[in-house]
Amino acid sequence: MVNEIAFVIIPYRSPGKSYDYRTRTMRSCEQVPCGSPISIVYDDGTVQHLDSVGGRGDKVAISPNRQHLVISDAYGIHAIHAHTVHTYKKSELTDSVRGIHVNDDGTFFSVEHVGSREVDGTVQFSSFVGWKYHDQYHEKLVGIDGVLVDCNLNPQLFSYGDEDDKKTHIYRFNPDQGAFEEQQPLTGAAVITPSHYHCQDDHTVLMHGDISKDLDTFDSETGYFSFNNGIVDSNIQEAWFDERPLVDRQVSSVYDGVFYSIGEPGNIHRYVINEHMLPDLNVYTFIPRPTQDNLSLTNASLSGSSLFLMSIDPKINRRIVSEINMQDNGKLISSTRNKYIDKTYNIDQIDGLFIFNPDQFRAWADREQY
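Predicted structure:
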């Protein structure tokens, strides 16, 4: 039986330093590790390190069966399975990943922005696509740009609106043809730019991001919107925040009909989900900051009713791991310093925390504590 991935820790990479971190060039990063590694911890407690140049965007995907992990950075696509890493070198040296997807069988595709290029005789905003299919790696430059929403085994690319100034166009990738095929367009917005999203069990997708009603004016609003598999009768269900709390994809989730988010300056908000599968902004409770940590440097992952925080104690400048019970009004269950985090990420911040096996994460945190 293949050992499954329990959780993944991803270090932060400044976009301006992705190609020259610690004064090294991108090419030299292929020979000498640049910065802290990505840490992959398995169900049996073993830890695997993966060096990465870094880059911007959602560059990590994990298969639903937790057996495959794929990372796209500035010089390659790294596929991890059963502790083995296979790197597919890219012909395009990009670092702006629009999204990546991997199936249970290890097939994947990655979408990355490469700026204005000539495609099929026309200069247009373009993307570089690399994909593995039928045990072969393929690459292609396509005339499209957008954000990939990897949800419910049904990844969809939400275009930035280059084709149309009145509609948002949604595409799905066809690996046989190496092309994006358009689905039904959304008529309620010219451009939708998701900043984060949550895949719910009923196949509804809850997103937070910007919606531009008219591409000509470039006016946009920020808030939450919901789709059923991406499309609800071509109409967008919307809910808007007045204060725009700081919400990151890693620190928002839905559990048992309640939407949780961490806002500025680190307080937890709980919103009831309404009939449109959106957070009802008029029905919420406020949970004060559960710890004294500097939550501006916090990463979090909600697994079941437990919210795990990985943050910095400003008094001792050391990272600590905390668990909060969301069913008990945000009660702090445990908080401890973690020597592995301090040693491995003593320079870099942490960009992402993905927890799939909370029991293994608790055991690891206890074993690695001071």
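Summary: The longest strand covers residues 108-119.
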